[in-house]
Design goal:
The protein is of the alpha+beta class. The protein has 2 domains: about 100 residues, N-terminal domain of the delta subunit of the F1F0-ATP synthase (Peroxidase, domain 1), CATH 1.10.520; about 70 residues, no CATH class. Helices cover about 60% and strands about 15% of the residues. The protein has 8 helices and 4 strands, in the order H-H-H-H-H-H-E-H-E-E-E-H. It has a 4-stranded mixed β-sheet with strand order 2-1-3-4. Helix 1 crosses helix 6. The longest helix has 20 residues. The protein is elongated. The mean pLDDT is about 90.
Length: about 180
Amino acid sequence: MAELTTLARPYAKAAFEYAAANGELDNWSKMLGVAAAVTGEEPVVKLLGSPSLTTAQQQQSFVEVCGDALSEQAQAFIAVLAENKRLVLLPEITALFDGLKAEQQKSVDVEVTSAFELDSATTEKLAKALTSTLNREVSVSTAVDNSLIGGVVVRAGDTVIDDSIRGKLSKLAKAMNS
């Protein structure tokens, strides 16, 4: 995984710099998302792994599958990836691009998992608290996991805050066993 990130980073950075300079971050994020989704489809996986096709043929076929979702600049980006045999890196490139975009926009997607459905007022209060704590604009999505028993687990990027009863019981069990 670290190797894929290392290979994908310069492409993600180049795409990000181009998109930022042209005010097209959201558009590029969507286009890269489509391209990354396409690379996961079985026929495309076979296409990209086919030794009988030239890189130009792979690139042309890939762009045709994506249809009108890609701008001319994105198609040129795909051509560079195909030429360097890096089309398979598109999911990683997309993730890195979105991370750079979120960093610039000072935003973060937060997933809140709770034992019970949270009402909108509680979600809003939690979003305000996380916005001030993380110093970023927060976009909250919620999920329900009955096994938590109570409390919440908050995931914001690499940060995980486990304030669930299951998590506390797990910590207590570890402390008692050591």
